[in-house]
Design goal:
Blueprint (H helix, E strand, L loop, with lengths): L5 E2 L4 H5 L2 H10 L2 E6 L2 E6 L2 H9 L3 E2 L9 H8 L17 H10 L4 H5 L2 H13 L7 E3 H6 L1 H11 L3 H16 L5 H25 L13 H7 L9 H15 L1 H15 L4 H7 L4 H11 L9 E3 L3 E3 L2 E3 L4 E4 L1 H4 L33 H18 L4 E2 L21 E3 L5
Parallel strand pairs: 1-2, 3-9
Antiparallel strand pairs: 2-3, 4-6, 5-11, 6-9, 7-8, 10-11
Helix pairs in contact: 7-9, 7-18, 9-10, 10-11, 11-13, 14-16, 14-18, 16-18
Bound molecules: protoporphyrin IX containing FE.
Protoporphyrin IX containing FE binds next to helix 13, helix 14 and helix 18.
Amino acid sequence: MSDRPTLSTSDRESTRDPYTSLAALRDQAPLSRVVVDGLPVWLVTRYDEAVRILSDPRMSNDGLRYAGPEAHTVAWTGVTTAGVQAHLLRVDPPDHTRLRRLVSKVFTPRRVAALEPRIRTTARELIAALPAGDARADLLAAYAGPLPVEVIAELFGVPTPRLGEFRYWTDRYAGASESEGELQAEASRRLATILGDLIRRRREELADATLDVEHEGTLLDGLIKARDHDDRLDERELITMAFLLLATGYETTVNLIANGLLVLMSAPGRLARLVADPGLVPVAIEEILRVESPVKTVTPRYATEDIQVGDALIAAGDAVLVHHGAVNRDPAKFADADVYDLQHSGSHLAFGHGVHYCLGAPLARLEARVALEELLAARPHMELAVPVDIIEWRHSRIIRGVRALPVRLGRAS
Ligand code: HEM
């Protein structure tokens, strides 16, 4: 293993610019045998191979398929799911098909679209709380951070008295770095308790109710009532599903909004163009997802048999990891791939591909659109308060996101 190149996600340079070393790997081969943060994997850096790997049914999401040391499996499957059983991202068809079908019945485009007024109101409240005049503010703490947690609380119907607690632990859960396993485990226990209480209460309240799960009640109500023929989620599965939606839906969206604002303020004219033509915001969001993918890597795939991909022979039990940030900058797929350019088509892999394609993509897009529309309308002259290369990035294998987003707000519109 020691002859493999190593890739760190936690030193300052590679968090500031992960792309240069990934491009060097990509130039050599579509898949490279590397050690990422001490864990040996095949890292996929080219677009076409990422699509192949993510659509190959011989590639499993089940950590038990991994042939490496148990310590690695624990590291991969992570403290993030402490106390929570196997969920969508960790299971293969047919179990995956069953769980995904149940949640898809409830997490419908219609239910997502219905959240728009609430998202807009929350965005406006956060904007109203920003300092007046041309002051400095950290838009991660003051805007991008708080917005998604309110949306998730709304989705779940977290009652007002528990909102403070819910916000606090969601924030601790997401804010804990991967080395702060204890804090994250504590936060995930607290959140599982809050969600468990909520589910039990709503279950009793809804016991005799019939619910059109596509249209009525909160997402959580829908999950409680969802049925697929005789199938439904049991209580443990419900908590796991709710927890997964929280874990996957929060930080990712925070960082889509924050990365978006950063990308727009990092070069002259980008923000002004959207201010002049807000209709371009959805296209800009796709380009932000491509050029600063908020999720760098997520769940490894484990080969269930020997698989040849180009020159690479992936042995049964090997771990394979797609780097979404790297494949989205593959020059074989996108001309001038490192450059933000609204001409690039939206076919990025920021939300993954195949059966595990992000379930929350419509919600993430909606939140980011409303967040940008509202802030750009209110603060069209904002600009970064520090040079872009001074911005500090989080040390994370999973998330591409800043530690703070200092801006000068400019005069209000
Ligand atoms: C899956 C990215 C927002 C829920 C995924 C995957 C990616 C991803 C790359 C695939 C993982 C894999 O194949 O191993 C993102 C990004 C987001 C975002 C970049 C925001 C910018 C959300 C939101 C939710 C969500 C808002 C829900 C509220 C999920 C779930 C899965 C998933 C449940 C697992 C689906 C499955 O295994 O079938 N996401 N996500 N995501 N995402 Fe998202």
